[in-house]
Amino acid sequence: MMDPCAHCEEMMQPYLDRILTDAERHEAEAHLAECESCRRRYRFEESLRVYVRRAVDTPMSPELKEKLAALRIPLN
């Protein structure tokens, strides 16, 4: 039998993407309700997604674009 936390880990991204079946979603939610460790992991993953979404929405300053362009190495 698969470790319930390992199974929850496999389901974490699809759960956050809301692409699980109803049965899988209920299974994930039941495990999250019982397991503090997986709940902490879920909260981390959820907050990371929010952070990345905000970072993507923030325009890059011209100065930063210039610094990054200077770091480019030509592909030959």
Key features?
4 helices; 76% helix; 76 residues; mainly alpha
Description:
With 76 residues, the chain is an all-alpha fold. It has one domain. Helices cover 76% and strands 0% of the residues. The protein is built from 4 helices and no strands. Helix 1 crosses helix 2 (22-34) and helix 2 (22-34) crosses helix 3. The longest helix is centred in the middle third of the chain and has 22 residues, at 36-57. The protein is elongated, with a radius of gyration of 19 Å. The model has no long low-confidence stretch (mean pLDDT 90).
The SSE order reads HHHH
Structural class: mainly alpha
* Structural domains: how many: 1
- Overall residue-averaged pLDDT value: 90
Total E-strand runs: 0
- Proportion of beta-strand residues: under 5%
Count of helical segments? Answer: 4
Globally, the shape reads: elongated
pLDDT < 50 runs, ≥5 residues: none
Oligomeric state as shown: single chain
SSE layout and pairing:
Blueprint: H1 4-16, H2 22-34, H3 36-57, H4 62-71
Compose a concise summary of this entry:
The chain is an all-alpha fold and 76 residues long. It has 4 helices and no strands.
